């Protein structure tokens, strides 16, 4: 695995515009996915199970073959793919990338969604060529990881509408998972916290407010 140059662009500012007040089938699917995750939180599902469900629902919302979640690794300069679902997921789990030289790290550090087309010889050689959307898992206080969805080879880039729905879902999901881990820690104060989405990153990021203000699911 190489940490070569991996290019990508910030998503357009229009993604942060006002929500669609007329409602749509996409709104319904996103809300249903969020409620699925909420039920899992209330059921006491462990962190790995919650992150897996998060990736599964994101994959279904995006209608793509692969989705994964990357979290800060023990080395503060790297992110590790903790959960992957879909085609070729087994090749990705456990892989790490350097935060300073990857699009995953760029989305994590900037706390902004990124969209790009992956080439086979770039940062993660295991990723198929095709569009990728990388979304920060932002709790409102800090980014705890990133969610990525990968389109089929040869597919066009994610539309602004699709990216916005996934961004709203990622924000809601991050807050729900954080709530679950906070409740778990409060219930068992003598047990060490599970590593992953709970501890803040080693590097404290500035509180960046995206254009258009706050967002949520």
Describe this structure in words.
- This protein has a 7-stranded antiparallel sheet with strand order 1-5-6-7-2-3-4, sandwiched between helices.
- The chain has helices at residues 25-42, 47-62, 89-92, 103-110, 160-187; strands at 9-10, 66-72, 78-86, 96-98, 114-118, 130-138, 143-150.
- The model is unreliable at 1-6 and 198-217 (pLDDT under 50).
- A hairpin with a 4-residue loop joins strand 6 and strand 7 (143-150).
- Helix 2 (47-62) runs antiparallel to helix 5 (160-187).
- It contains 5 helices and 7 strands; from the N terminus they run E-H-H-E-E-H-E-H-E-E-E-H.
For the largest beta-sheet, the strand count, sense and barrel status come to: 7 strands, antiparallel
The low-confidence runs, each spanning 5 or more residues with pLDDT under 50, are 1-6, 198-217
What proportion strand?
15-25%
Helix fraction, binned, reads: 25-40%
Count of DSSP helices?
5
Q: What order do the helices and strands follow?
A: EHHEEHEHEEEH
Shape: globular
Output the structural class: alpha+beta
How far apart are the termini?
35 Å
- Sequence of strands across the biggest β-sheet: 1-5-6-7-2-3-4
Quaternary structure of the protein: single chain
The counted number of beta strands is 7
**Radius of gyration, whole Å:** 16 Å
Mean pLDDT level:
79
């Amino acid at each position: 695995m190489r940490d070569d140059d991996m290019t990508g662009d910030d998503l357009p500012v229009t993604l942060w515009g006002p929500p669609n007040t007329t409602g749509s089938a996409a709104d319904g699917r996103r809300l249903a996915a969020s409620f699925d995750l909420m039920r899992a939180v209330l059921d006491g599902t462990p962190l790995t199970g919650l992150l897996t469900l998060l990736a599964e629902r994101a994959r279904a919302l995006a209608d793509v073959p692969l989705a994964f979640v990357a979290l800060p690794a023990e080395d503060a300069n790297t992110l590790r793919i903790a959960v992957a679902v879909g085609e070729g997921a087994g090749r990705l789990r456990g892989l790490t990338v350097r935060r300073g030289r990857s699009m995953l790290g760029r989305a994590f550090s900037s706390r902004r969604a990124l969209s790009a087309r992956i080439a086979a010889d770039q940062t993660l050689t295991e990723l198929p060529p095709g569009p990728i959307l990388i979304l920060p898992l932002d709790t409102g206080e800090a980014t705890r990881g990133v969610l990525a969805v990968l389109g089929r080879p040869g597919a066009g880039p994610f539309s602004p509408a699709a990216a916005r729905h996934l961004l709203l879902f990622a924000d809601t999901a991050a807050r729900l998972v954080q709530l679950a881990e906070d409740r778990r820690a409060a219930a068992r104060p003598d047990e060490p916290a599970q590593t992953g989405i709970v501890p803040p990153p080693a590097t404290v990021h500035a509180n960046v407010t995206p254009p258009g203000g706050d967002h949520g699911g």
